[in-house]
Amino acid sequence: MPWTLLFLAGLFEVGWAIGLKYTDGFTRPIPTVLTIVSMIISMGLLGLALKDLPVGTAYAVWTGVGTVGTAILGMWLLGDPATAVRIGCIALIVCGIAGLKLVA
Questions:
Q1: DSSP characters over 57-77
Q2: How many CB atoms lie within 10 A of CB 20?
Q3: Separation CA 103–CA 48 (nearest Å)
Q4: Which residues touch 15 (CB under 8 Å, ≥6 apart)?
Q5: Tens digits of residue pLDDT in 31-73
Q6: Is the pLDDT of residue 103 over 90?
Q7: Whole-angstrom distance, CA of residue 99 vs CA of residue 91
Q8: Which of 71, 57, 82 is nearest to 2 (CA)?
Q9: Distance (Å, rounded) from C-alpha 27 to C-alpha 79?
Q10: What does the pLDDT look like over 64-100, one tens digit per residue?
């Protein structure tokens, strides 16, 4: 269960990271509220996962899931570059996340 909570926390981190782009500097109320709610949920789920997981592992996985998801959505939704090197680096992050899951 803590790994599921951690993965969900990472997904909500993606939500607030992408949401920041849509807040237009916190001038748009609905995206701003949704972004703040995503931040709160993400932190709350991370806190719950930390009850059972080592802090270093949980934090690295949380930020890794957030980084991978944000990078992929940035390419898909926002036109960020999708070069082979960039995708390869994202794959390395995924390998790191999987490695941490295996040793924790």
A1: HHHHHHHHHHHHHHHHHHHHH
A2: 17
A3: 20
A4: 34, 35, 38, 42
A5: 999 999 999 999 999 999 999 999 999 999 999 999 999 999 9
A6: no
A7: 12
A8: 57
A9: 22
A10: 999 999 999 999 999 999 999 999 999 999 999 999 9
Q: 28: which DSSP letter? A: S
Q: Which residue segment(s) compose the domain that 43 sits in?
A: 2-103
Closest CA to 16 of 59, 79, 62: 62
- To the nearest 10 degrees (0 to 180), the angle between helices 2-22 and 29-49 is 160
Q: In whole angstroms, give the CA distance from residue 100 to residue 39.
A: 24
Q: What is the pTM of this model?
A: 0.88
State the Cα–Cα distance between residues 56 and 53, nearest whole angstrom. 9
Q: How many domains does the chain have?
A: 1
